[in-house]
Amino acid sequence: MKNIKIELKWAIIFSIVGLLWMLLEKLSGLHSTYIDYHLYLTNLFAIPAIWVMVLALKDKKKNHYSGNMTYLNGLLSGIVLSVFIAAISPLTQWVTSFVISPEYFPNVIKRSVELGYYKTTAEAEAYFNYQNYATQGAIGALGMGIVTTAIAMIFLRTKPSAKQG
Fold first, then answer.
1. Boundaries of domain holding 57
2. Is residue 164 included in any domain, yes or no?
């Protein structure tokens, strides 16, 4: 358990940051008045998401590996972190869907039919619902977490020193 304490801590931090982002989206009207812009602006969450992942990997490098972390060590840490985030994501999606912004799904369903993205309300409801978002969120968290880690570790790994001889 000690070996994964840092990943668990950062998965919780990541989830809190995600919930704060959802609250910001709701308060700014992206779940209601400005829902037409939600599709584009919600992707800006990548900025704090990447930032939190990098901070987590730096924490692991400093406090677990004493500043000497290989690419593989970091990659494994990021995979564990991504699994934890994916496991927590259905709960954070539930909080978003039923506590922070229960009006989001009805609003996006109505608007997506009005704009012609879906022909019927039933088609839109089949896509815009808690179950679908929870599934997509978990899969997306796992995939994007691993990709982010794979790229970040190119820069964060401890580079081998040149042997002198």
1. 2-156
2. no
What H or E segment, with its residue span, contains residue 85?
A: helix 71-95
CB proximity list for 132: less than 8 A, separation 6 or greater:
126
State the Cα–Cα distance between residues 57 and 77, nearest whole angstrom. 7
- Cα atoms in the Cβ-side hemisphere of radius 13 Å centred on 70: 4
- pTM recorded for the entire structure: 0.94
**Residue-wise pLDDT tens digits, 7-55:** 999 999 999 999 999 999 999 999 999 999 999 999 999 999 999 999 9
In a domain, 162, yes or no: no
Taking the alpha carbons at both ends of the chain, their separation in whole angstroms is 41
